[in-house]
Write a structure and sequence with these properties.
about 475 residues, 12-stranded parallel β-sheet, about 35% helix, F-box domain-containing protein, LRR_dom_sf
Length: about 475
């Protein structure tokens, strides 16, 4: 303990910041404060560094030790010096009732009035043109979020789950204030007017995570278009975004285009990483989003439940726009009779051929069928693995096979039901994955081949042992899934 006490305050602060940032759990910093007065003095300002309500304020579970969002705002009101300490905010549940939906405790009306007055002083234009102050007086998280975002100008990460319905009153639709505020900021970022000498809210935002609360529907991609104009945004992670398959906005409750939407940037966005989880975008929606980026490095597409047909040609060309910058691509595509990616021309499919053009690609996750090539189009038995479709820069390869994944999981749970003809249907793909030459020739930088999505490791199977040993001899790790049995 004596050696720790001899550490200078500046170094201790950096250590405490590291502990706080390690897992975004500020309860650790509360424990540090209990050590002694010196530790308490250094650690106390860091208690607001990360705020999250994920998993703690649902009707099922509420922890009284957690600081609710309105109390978090009140803390920032009372201690303005803490506002610049806030680095990340995660709002999983934007509560808009008077405490009826959730067990959160509202702060006293007089404290809400203080927050409303602060909003009027901090955001006079927004306060005079919207119901911002009224919403704060009612304890609405939407209004309080706007105030917190306006204060925390060093914020680098925002994780926001959009509720399924807008706030409605008789005869009048009310704005989703946090999205409206986002657009107003974006308009200032792209304006030619003289820039403010002080940093604007969310000007330093690096990571935006954007989810929709209702898994049965989608949040329109137009809602996030202002984020693409933020000057320092590098990473965008979304869940359930769509564009009504290219149609209008009329199905979105309380939505008019002027509320939230902006034109997508044209190869000017600072965005470098895009993660799309279960999107329902049209071809034009995918293309516009990728075309917005100036220097895209990471693209991760996870298809799960979306139904319809998409153009693989469009996706290949959209990726091709970033051939000189893409370093990671992952395409986990659901490809069956209900969800298909098909080329614009029956003569050629550009998507399997586009990977070799991505000259800086180091990590790829792609469907196995993109690596299979039939030597004789009329003979399915001539289908062979073609690693030549991959770029020489590749270091890590993950292979997806949705059918084999389903068979693997089900056969481990119900082995008697998945024998014979069902397994034989995919035996050629399974065999090609195991006997294919992953480590020879062009792919000299290849380090790992991950096929755990579709095949389980079984040391008793000679074929599996042989391919793993051969890969190891050539400096490549062949990764298979762990059996649940």
């Amino acid at each position: 303990m004596d050696s720790i006490n001899r550490i200078p305050d500046e170094i201790l602060k950096e250590i405490f910041i590291y502990v706080t940032d390690l897992d975004y759990d500020y309860i650790d910093i509360f424990q540090v404060r209990l050590v002694n007065k010196r530790f308490c003095k250094i650690a106390t300002p860091l208690r607001v560094r990360h705020w999250s309500d994920y998993g703690y304020y649902s009707p099922i579970y509420t922890s009284p030790s957690r600081t609710t969002f309105n109390r978090f705002a009140l803390e920032l009101l009372r201690h303005p010096e803490l506002r610049l300490q806030v680095k990340s905010v995660q709002i999983d549940w934007l509560r808009s009732d008077d405490g009826k939906e959730t067990p959160r405790h509202l702060i006293r009306p007089e404290n809400l009035a203080l927050l409303a007055r602060a909003a009027e002083e901090t955001l006079p234009d927004l306060a005079s043109t919207t119901d911002l102050c009224d919403q704060i007086r009612q304890g609405s998280d939407d209004g309080i979020t706007v105030l917190v975002l306006a204060w925390t100008t060093n914020l680098t990460s925002l994780d926001l789950t959009i509720p399924s319905d807008s706030r409605l009153k008789v005869g009048k639709d009310y704005l989703m204030l946090v999205l409206y505020f986002t657009k107003q900021l974006a308009l200032r970022f792209v304006s030619d007017d003289p820039k403010s000498t002080l940093p604007l809210p969310m000007e330093k935002l690096h990571t935006s995570i954007f989810r929709y609360w209702n898994f049965d529907r989608e949040i329109h991609v137009a809602h996030l278009s202002p984020f693409l104009h933020f000057p320092n945004l590098k990473s965008l992670n979304t869940l359930r975004i769509g564009d009504n398959r290219g149609r209008d906005f009329s199905y979105v409750a309380g939505f008019t285009e002027n509320h939230y939407s902006m034109p997508f940037p044209e190869r000017t966005s600072s965005l470098e990483s895009i993660f799309l989880d279960d999107p329902t975008l049209s071809n034009a929606g995918f293309s516009s989003l990728l075309h917005a980026c100036k220097n895209l490095k990471v693209f991760d597409l996870q298809f799960a439940s979306a139904l319809g047909t998409w153009s693989s040609t469009m996706l290949a060309r959209a990726l091709g726009e970033h051939a000189s910058s893409l370093e990671e691509v992952s395409l986990s595509l659901q490809d069956d009779e209900d969800s298909q990616w098909v080329p614009d021309s029956a003569d050629t499919d550009e998507l399997p051929e586009c990977y070799r053009e991505l000259k800086r690609l180091k990590r790829a996750g792609i469907p196995m069928k993109h690596l299979l090539q039939r030597e004789d189009e009329n003979d399915s038995t001539t289908t062979k693995l073609n690693p030549g479709r991959l770029p020489e820069s590749l270091e890590h390869l993950t292979i997806f096979h949705s059918d084999l994944r389903f068979v693997r999981v089900q056969s481990e749970s119900f082995p008697d039901m998945f024998k014979g003809v069902i397994l034989d249907t995919f035996e050629s793909d399974r065999k090609e994955a195991l006997v294919g030459d992953w480590a020879r020739g062009r792919l000299e930088k290849l380090k790992t081949v991950d096929f755990s999505d579709a095949l389980s490791d079984d040391p008793m199977v000679e074929e599996i042992r042989r391919v793993k040993d051969l890969a190891k001899e050539r400096g490549v790790e062949f990764i298979l899934g762990k059996s649940i049995r």
